[in-house]
Each structure stands twice: as C-alpha cells, then as structure tokens.
Design a protein that fits this description.
By secondary structure, the chain is of the alpha+beta class. The chain is 46% helix and 20% strand.
Length: 292
C-alpha cells in the first residue's frame, strides 16, 4: 500500500493552471473568493469599521490574488517547483499547500490594517486566517487539478511529449507498434517499443511488464519465451538476458555483478532482472551499443 501511494504521488502530472499562469490565476482566485463571499457570506465574515462589507471583501480578495502571484514567483526560484517537465502529483500538492499557507499569512497581516489590530497578534488568529484561506482558495486549485487528472489515464501524445512521459521515439522504424500473438487465437498484445520494460516466462505463459501513461501494467500471453524472443528479435535494444527473461536495455538503470552474472534494475519497476553467465557477453555488447 505504501509503495502504491508513493508511486501515485510521483506520477508525472501537468502543472495546475493557476500556478502555470499566475496572472490569470490571481484574477480567477480574486473573482472566485469575492463572488463566493458575497453570495454565501461564509465563516462569519465581517466588514471593516471603515469600509462597507463589499469593499472589505474586495480588498481581501484582491490581496489573496496578489499573494498567489507572489508565492508562485517565490516557488519558481526553486528548481524542484520550476521544472514543469518533472512536475508530479506530489509537487502539485506541496505547491498548493505552500501557496495557500502564504495567502493565509498575507490575509492575516492585512487584517492589522483593515480591521482593528487589537487582539490579533496571536497564533489562534493566524491559524484562523490560514484555515479560511484554505477553505476558499482550495476550490479553484482543486478544479484545475481535477481537469488535469484525466491525463493520467488518457493516451495523449501532446501531453506525453511536453511533460516527457514516455515520449514516442522520433525514429519511424522504432515507432512501429509491436504486436505479440498468442497460441490462443483470440489473444493479441500491442505496445510501442518504448513502453516495453521486460517479459518473463511463467510456465506456459509470458508476462509482459509495460509502462503505459506512467503506470506499470502486466499483460499475460499464452506463449513460450523462445517464441516471444523471435517476435522481438528485430527490435533494437530488446534482448534475452536469461532463460526466463527478455529485457529492454533502454530501461536499464544499473547493473551489479561479475562474470558469474548480473543483476539489473530497470526504470518503471522495482523488480531485479538477472543476466545469466551465458548471456553476459551478448548483454555487454548490446548494452554498449544502445548507450552510445
């Protein structure tokens, strides 16, 4: 369960529109907060002694919008928050949390000038301002995150290329879809070469480990590993490393071992794949070519 949560948090994800476009985000946030407060008057909101209720809420709403711009700008100084190609669900959640906390802090400070400053200098009042900012400001962020969430299950090539999620190879030959047949006539498996991680023999079946839309999937075909090796023989970088394993060398992150055999770690999976002693020479030659 823990590994599944970590995997989900680290999935590539489009950056929230409000963060990607802070000026538009500030306007959206300002309008949403102002209209929402006027319509529902939530959280026992009160007017300033010197301003009408509407004008008081307008000032707070504008302040929250400007604070959104400010804290997006501050976050962009950090490489972890500025690299959109490496944006993940975890970064989305962390950035929204920090931005809303920042907005709440600004709203708290504004209260010293808009309302009576007496009795405001305490942690309870500060936390109250932050919690109100979360309750109101979270809606626009959640809305745009929910719109982007569809990309996790959609096969959208434009999104894949922009955010570097298993982008399709530019080479036309490699871009050909691989079709794996089964001894059962109704079974067929199709995938792109860059989606294939490895395949392993399991009795009369072969289990394919494929990365689609940044999620690991297992597909089972009734066939022998030797037949699958023949079907994949023309695909560059895909070789048999063991009597029970076929590996995409482009997915190899690291190898450990000696002349008796290697242990491979691959991108997209926690599995450790063996290279048998008899296949070491073939592996070394193919691996050196693929890494050139």
């Amino acid at each position: 369960m823990k590994n599944q949560i970590i995997s989900w948090l680290n999935k590539k994800f489009p950056r929230n529109y409000l963060i990607e476009n802070p000026v538009a985000g500030a306007i959206i946030n300002t309008l949403f907060c102002f209209i929402f407060i006027l319509l529902y008057k939530p959280l026992q909101t009160n007017a300033s002694p010197h301003l009408s209720f509407e004008l008081t809420m307008a000032v707070y709403s504008i302040g929250s919008g400007l604070a959104l711009m400010l804290f997006v700008w501050i976050l962009n100084f950090s490489k972890w928050f500025s690299d959109i190609k490496e944006w993940t669900i975890l970064r989305e959640i962390a950035s929204v949390f920090l931005i809303l906390t920042g907005i709440g802090s600004v709203v708290y400070l504004m209260g010293f000038f808009i309302e009576s400053p007496a009795g405001r200098l305490n942690m309870e009042t500060y936390l109250d301002s932050v919690s109100r900012s979360f309750l109101l400001g979270l809606f626009p962020f959640v809305f745009f995150s929910a719109i982007n969430y569809r990309y996790l299950s959609a096969d959208n090539d434009q999104f894949r290329v922009k955010y570097n999620i298993n982008p399709r190879p530019e080479n036309n030959e490699e871009e050909q879809v691989i079709k794996i047949s089964s001894k059962l006539k109704k079974e067929e498996l199709s995938f792109f070469p860059d989606e294939f991680i490895y395949a392993e023999s399991d009795g009369n079946y072969v289990v394919f480990h494929i990365l689609k839309n940044n999620a690991l999937k297992k597909e089972i075909i009734r066939n022998s590993i030797s037949n699958i090796e023949q079907e994949l023989a023309e695909i560059p970088g895909i070789i048999r490393t063991h009597r029970a394993f076929i590996v995409n060398l482009k997915k190899v992150k690291s190898k450990q071992g000696n002349i008796l055999g290697y242990q491979l770690r691959l991108s997209g999976t926690d599995s450790v794949i063996p290279v048998s002693r008899n296949n070491i020479h073939k592996f070394d030659e193919a691996f050196s070519v693929i890494r050139q």
